[in-house]
Amino acid sequence: MRVAIIQFLGTNCDFDCKYACDCMGIESEFVWHDEGELKNFDCVILPGGFSYGDYLRSGALAKFSSIMNAVKSFAKYGGYVLGICNGFQILTESGLLTGTLLKNTNLKFIHKDVYLKVENSVCGFAQDIEKKVLKMPIAHGEGNYFCSVDQLKYLEDNNMIVLRYSSKDGSVEDEFNLNGSLGNIAGICNEKGNVFGLMPHPERAVGDLGHDGEEIWKSLLK
What we know:
The protein contains five helices and eleven strands, in the order E-H-E-E-H-E-H-E-E-E-E-H-E-E-E-H. It is α/β, with parallel strands linked by helices.
């Protein structure tokens, strides 16, 4: 498997993703944001960070980068795309995923470990995860997922909600929803299940850093 790790101006989790790929025995390559095509890759990762300084909105400027046209085409024809934190924001801004990410309800940057209930979904990155609850860190100021009532119903009806913030035993309650996300949503996918965006950082729960993040890559490899 070959993975492209996209680097935007302001990306800062690119080497974290490279570390995760190395730990999983996956070949990966950095691709600069002004490239116009993606060739011979099986998966594309949009890492976390602060693309273009988060001016306007997080991910709002990155969607105009040349590489995003290639990412859209890659996804259209079945290529797997993973957007982590800022990458999730870029995917929603680009229209590859439904909804948007707003400022955390407490208006503060949150950095801590969270528990995530794994939902039954069509997501290719989660099809073979045996664990019901995963533990990963979050690190964001705009992770409050929001969409319309109709969009939420569509996500639920089509099994596109992948992860929800929860307790250690998988209870989905408001008290475990640190950023205010609608329905405790931490990650969603598209209709085909090949585009996945999440606010938690699986690349920071791999190898010496933990093992729950490895479940995302293991599922993709299978």
